[in-house]
Design the sequence.
């Protein structure tokens, strides 16, 4: 399974994730669409952190504005800038209030440009002509950020102001990471425990210990772990936490992998004891189920005939449904009804929802909060059975995770056809076919 593994020992921020993905082989040209949609550009270059060559990404506002008014202690420039960059000096030293992605460097223009509410961010992203899967990831990340902020302040999601992380440059961080990850084409993303740093950080509402309240809320909904240290500064920002909470599974150590490529994304600070970088490793990993991005649609109906309900598996599959489940339920006034659940890919969701409404007459289709499912790798083999001197072919589905095969299942229609010709019970035909497949 092609896997991207992050080494979280120095935390993560939006710009470090951008740098790590580019260094690991993602094509910087995919960022052009962001520059066309927002008044920003990406300054991509090489830098050195404690002897390690790393990729530094700075999102700059058009017109040359590169600062958020912050002295982050980053006194080095970004060298060897790519075509997304310019030649401005990168040193800044001014007073500021806390920015969500400030911790790893001072030349990031975090918090500059228009500030937005959550619905305004959604409207902006939906107008960027992203692919359905990338748009889904971007909106899911901002939903996590908004919910984390809303929990901190006791507000509703739609009322949440994103402050710095709703600005143009911060939107460029989130959209850029999702585009680069899509370009890498990995099937699974994992991260080791993420270092938070330590000490305190000053925000617009006062001084708080690291990790900040929003980062803690994001970690609460993630599958990865936090660990303190190893330095007294903020290492894991809310933007980095939100991206990894949505995109990555937590692991305690790097998985067993056959490495294809690796790279380092640089933060802005120079830390004497440690290289301030996020390492990304791409390769084939053994074992584990594959993370498959999906959405789940559902609706309740109480006036649909059994024939129509039974046909949904076929009619919805025609427009992209991956799985259809019909469950009996009890509706208001104790009327018997059915819950229809449909698994779809993001790009098929609207088309499948429309067909579901047309077929059942339902007045509404819900989209649940599911973002992915874990699936085994599947392949089909054809086995040959000998019965009374005659040879028959049966297709068999094999399920595996890496090198481990854990299920063998004969295709029922093939087995039924053989059973009818031979007079054998269909169950016996399936057992024989599965035994042949296992013994290969």
Sequence:
């Amino acid at each position: 399974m092609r896997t991207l593994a992050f080494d979280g020992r120095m935390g993560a921020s939006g710009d470090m994730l951008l740098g790590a993905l580019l260094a690991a082989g993602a094509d910087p040209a995919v960022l052009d669409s962001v520059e066309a949609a927002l008044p920003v550009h990406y300054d991509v270059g090489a830098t050195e952190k404690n002897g390690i060559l790393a990729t530094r990404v700075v999102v700059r506002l058009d017109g040359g504005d590169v600062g958020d008014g912050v002295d982050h202690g980053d006194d080095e420039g970004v060298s060897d800038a790519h075509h997304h960059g310019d030649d401005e000096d990168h040193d800044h030293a001014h007073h500021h209030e806390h920015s969500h992605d400030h911790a790893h460097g001072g030349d990031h223009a975090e918090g500059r440009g228009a500030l937005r509410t959550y619905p305004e961010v959604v409207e902006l992203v939906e107008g960027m002509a992203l692919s359905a899967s990338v748009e889904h990831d971007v909106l899911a990340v901002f939903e996590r950020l908004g919910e984390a902020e809303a929990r901190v302040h006791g507000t509703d999601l739609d009322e949440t102001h994103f402050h710095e992380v709703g600005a143009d440059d911060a939107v460029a961080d989130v959209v850029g990471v999702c585009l680069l990850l899509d370009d890498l084409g990995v099937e699974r993303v994992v991260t080791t425990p993420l270092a938070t740093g330590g000490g305190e950080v000053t925000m617009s509402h006062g001084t708080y210990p690291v990790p900040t309240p929003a980062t803690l809320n994001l970690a609460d909904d993630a599958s990865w772990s936090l660990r303190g240290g190893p330095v007294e500064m903020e290492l894991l920002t809310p933007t980095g936490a939100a991206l990894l909470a949505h995109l990555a599974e937590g692991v305690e150590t790097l998985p067993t992998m056959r490495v294809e490529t690796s790279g380092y994304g640089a933060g802005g600070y120079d830390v004497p004891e440690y290289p301030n970088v996020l390492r990304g490793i791409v390769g084939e990993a053994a074992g584990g189920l594959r993370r498959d991005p999906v959405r789940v649609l559902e609706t309740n109906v109480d006036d649909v005939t059994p024939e129509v309900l039974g046909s949904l598996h076929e009619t919805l599959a025609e427009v992209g449904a991956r799985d259809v489940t019909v469950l009996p339920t009890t509706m208001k006034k104790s009327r018997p009804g059915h819950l229809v659940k449909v698994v779809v890919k993001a790009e098929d969701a609207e088309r499948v929802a429309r067909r579901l409404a047309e077929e059942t007459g339902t007045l509404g289709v819900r989209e649940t909060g599911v973002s992915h499912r874990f699936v085994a790798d599947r392949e089909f083999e054809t086995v040959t059975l000998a019965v009374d001197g005659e040879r028959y072919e049966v297709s068999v589905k094999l399920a595996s995770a890496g090198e481990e095969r854990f299920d063998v299942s004969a295709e029922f229609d093939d087995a039924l056809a053989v059973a009818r010709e031979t007079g054998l019970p269909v169950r016996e035909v399936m057992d024989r076919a599965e035994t042949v497949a296992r013994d290969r």
User: Anything to note?
Assistant: Residues 376-439 form a domain with the Ubiquitin-like (UB roll) fold (CATH 3.10.20.300). The first strand starts at residue 2 and ends at 7.
